[in-house]
UniProtKB/TrEMBL annotation:
UniProt cross-references to InterPro entries, sorted A to Z: DUF427, DUF427_sf
Protein name (record): DUF427 domain-containing protein
Native organism: Streptomyces cahuitamycinicus
Domain annotation DUF427: ranges: 16-103
PANTHER family referenced in this protein's UniProt entry, alphabetically: CONSERVED PROTEIN, DUF427 DOMAIN PROTEIN (AFU_ORTHOLOGUE AFUA_3G02220)
Pfam hit, one: NTP_transf_9
Amino acid sequence: MTKGHRITVERSDRHVRVVHGGQVLAESDRSLVLRETGCPERYYIPREDVRLDLLTPSGAQTYCPFKGTASYWSLPDAADLVWAYPDPRPDVAEIKDHLCFYEVEVF
């Protein structure tokens, strides 16, 4: 990591739910919280707790020098709403097989 940039990944002790258009897309008590310098907290939800049947791979990809290459999924009315790092960098290996959403409810 570059000087001054920090990422931590730890198990969340909170319940996380993702709802879009009144439909629950994910719900988990097993999420990871990723904290990264200059970014909002992000909750990474195990693949098994996400309704993948409702999502369509979008083909979009982005690259983060700290996490790796992200792949995205969409809903008909929300492009690239979900992302994951299929082969994350070693410093954040825990997020493999977890998906992240832009908006989540945490309680």
